[in-house]
Specification:
single chain, 14 helices, six-stranded mixed sheet
């Protein structure tokens, strides 16, 4: 207590006694026991009033008992309901909550998880994914000095996230296994690899990975169906040692548009789970006949690489000609590629501009930039008489057409004359330049479009080395050839550019989030982020219509839609306030990743329990778990003492005492006739 407060208290005591003495003893004619009692009542009540005015702070010691907290971590995914274990989970948790001795020793906190962790008591068992690693990690991060163990209620089958078997934890983990622990024979279609699109009358490759889980030798049949028609079949044999097979085949693209297929393997004897015996996939078939003219001023390996990449698609042909020898008509081709142009290209470029033809320009050390800059083709370069090697940097924001990163940053740099590039037309960079490890904003490959004329430009020679690098990395020319194919397909297309473009997949699984992106430009074909976009989705079977707004993320409009039922859907994206729309369709299959497991993963959960210092229990061992937790002496109640400081004026009973003392004094004086 501060010295000034002590002084105030001494003054209050003196003042209270003085006032009471003045009232009952000063010039009093008589005194007795009643006077002494009244004097005491007055002194105490006055002191308490003054004490409230002084309002000293009172310190008290509070002792708190802290019980260890047990974290109940419950798998809320569809796999639990698939194994029909919902009630068993609820009953097990109920037994823990209703055990009085366990409740005296522990507090309980309940979490549920599927794709992510939630603090909740609500269980629905409808999650589309299981991320055990993230759930355990998140709870473990909440660890305090007196936290108890984690009780993990799950079947142990994780569908997303890191492997939980090797996680490092501060807390003990006790896995409680739910699901069928009996191991059944099972065959499954694990993965289907296929190109997203093909061309009419072409063949496209399909690669399917099949797996077998069992000890005995089995025979079955694998088939691929287009609708109800079988387009491929093969007899398959598995054994304990030969428990996987990769099936590759080429299917014919006979129908334009989206074509849906089902890869399926026949059920074997005693197989319990047939949900994983099939997978759906789709291929978009495009009807396109394209003739490409490659005009060159030099002999270079790039020419052969371009021709091979272009003609890898049988719907395209490439004609190579030296600019000196070319006597044909550019109008006979959908695309003209000008390789390292110089003054000899003057007539061809003039004809291209006159016909508004689409073309691609590839520069290099032998290109004449003084000549190119005078052609007014949408870009110029302040080139100097010195060459530079330009590495590639993938532009993740490129949305003109769909192009994945095929490892561009690992490819050999292209060589071109050094200088700054300037554009006078609307453009987008496919790849940026990297000079000696430094990424720049200068383009390495870009596309332009104006007045329905499309142009692509590659700033550098040596693209043949990219084809070789791609082959060394993947043992296939497919990625590089598809990249050149995407570029050629876009530039050669005569379709008028739409101000609204939409990107979506043709096929989604039931557990997937439907992600759709849109790109909208103003009348000058500049991205317009001020617009409001909306998507209207219609279920073809039920005719149910739902609408969702798009969100602006990184110069693109995007939306992620969850919980759509399986089936076929049409969609229409509209720009609100304008008559601009874009339509499309997609299909959601009934495939659920959570329903692909035949049994609980007891082995992995057991390893987790041992590594985390816990122990594995089964769904019928609730009593054993309770006994184990009660017998564990490492968990005990802690007593925590803390000093609590409060103001006297907050003590309501003091005010009551003052009122009582004044009332008692008044009643006694009334009784004695002194009032």
């Amino acid at each position: 207590m501060q010295s000034i407060t002590t002084l105030y208290l001494l003054i209050a005591v003196f003042l209270s006694i003085a006032i009471a003495y003045f009232q009952y003893y000063y010039k009093a004619k008589s005194s007795g026991k009643s006077t002494t009692f009244l004097f005491t009542l007055k002194s105490v009540s006055l002191f308490l009033v003054l004490l409230l005015l002084i309002n000293p702070k009172i310190k008290t010691t509070v002792v708190e008992n802290i019980k260890p907290t047990v974290s109940l971590l419950v798998d809320n995914s569809k796999s639990i309901s698939f194994f029909k274990e919902e009630q068993n989970v609820i009953d097990f948790i109920g037994k823990l909550n209703n055990d009085s001795e366990l409740s005296k020793k522990f507090n309980f906190q309940k979490f549920v998880f599927s794709e992510a962790l939630i603090v909740s008591d609500s269980l629905s068992f409808n999650g589309n994914g299981t991320n055990i690693h993230e759930a355990i990690s998140a709870v473990n991060q909440l660890n305090t000095a007196n936290n108890g163990p984690i009780l993990l209620f799950t079947d142990g089958n994780q569908t997303i996230g890191k492997d939980y078997e090797f996680i490092n934890l501060k807390q003990k983990v006790y896995p409680i296994v739910f699901g069928d622990t009996t191991k059944y024979r099972d065959v499954q279609v694990s993965q289907v690899n296929v190109n997203n699109y093909s061309y009419l009358k072409n063949k496209f490759p399909v690669e399917v990975l099949l797996n077998y889980d069992g000890n005995e030798e089995v025979k079955t049949k694998f088939s691929i169906f287009n609708g109800n028609k079988s387009v491929f079949s093969k007899n398959i044999q598995f054994s304990k040692k030969e428990n996987s097979q990769i099936i590759t085949t080429n299917l014919s693209a006979t129908k334009e548009g989206n074509n849906y297929y089902t890869a399926t393997i026949q059920k074997i004897k005693d197989e319990k789970n047939t949900q994983n015996n099939s997978k759906n996939f789709s291929v978009e078939v495009i009807d396109e006949q394209t003739k490409v003219l490659i005009l060159t001023s030099v002999l270079h390996p790039d020419i052969g690489a371009l021709k091979k990449a272009i003609e890898s698609n049988k719907q395209r042909t490439a004609v190579v000609s030296s600019i000196d020898d070319f006597k044909g008509q550019v109008s006979n081709f959908e695309l003209i590629i000008c390789y390292q142009p110089n003054e000899l290209f003057k007539t061809v470029l003039a004809k291209i501009k006159q016909l508004n033809s689409n073309f691609m320009l590839i520069s290099g050390p032998n290109a004449n930039w003084d000549f190119i800059n005078k052609q007014q083709i949408g870009f110029t370069k302040k080139a100097i008489n010195q060459t530079e090697n330009y590495g590639a940097v993938y532009n993740a924001s490129f949305l003109t057409f769909l192009q994945k990163d095929i490892g561009f940053n690992t490819f050999t740099p292209l060589e071109d004359q050094f200088g700054e590039v300037t554009f006078s037309k609307d453009h987008q960079e496919v790849l940026f330049q990297n000079i000696n490890g430094l990424a720049t904003a200068q383009p390495l490959i870009a596309v332009l479009e104006e007045n329905n004329q499309k142009t692509a430009v590659i700033f550098g020679e040596g693209i043949w080395k990219w084809r070789a690098s791609s082959f060394l990395g993947t043992n296939s020319f497919q990625d590089f050839d598809q990249f050149i194919g995407n570029l050629v397909q876009y530039v050669s297309s005569k379709k008028k550019r739409n101000r609204l473009s939409v990107t979506s997949e043709n096929l989604y699984t039931a557990s997937e989030v439907v992600q759709i992106s849109a790109f909208y430009t103003d009348k000058n074909y500049q991205f317009d982020g001020r617009a409001s976009l909306e998507i209207e989705i219609t279920n073809k079977q039920t005719k149910e219509v739902t609408k969702f707004p798009f969100f602006l993320i990184n110069n693109a409009f995007q939306i992620a839609i969850e919980n759509l039922n399986s089936g076929e859907y049409n969609f229409k994206v509209a720009v609100l306030g304008q008559e601009i729309t874009k339509s499309g369709s997609f299909k959601i299959t009934a495939y659920s990743l959570e329903e692909q497991f035949t049994h609980a993963n007891v082995g992995k959960l057991k390893k987790l329990g041992i590594k985390a210092g816990g122990k594995l229990f089964f769904k019928n061992e609730s009593e054993k778990l309770i006994e184990h937790l009660m017998a564990d002496k490492t968990y005990f109640t802690l007593q925590k003492a803390s000093i609590k400081e409060s103001n006297l004026i907050d003590w309501k009973w003091v005010l009551f005492l003052i009122t009582s003392l004044f009332t008692a004094e008044w009643l006694l004086r009334k009784y004695l006739g002194k009032i």
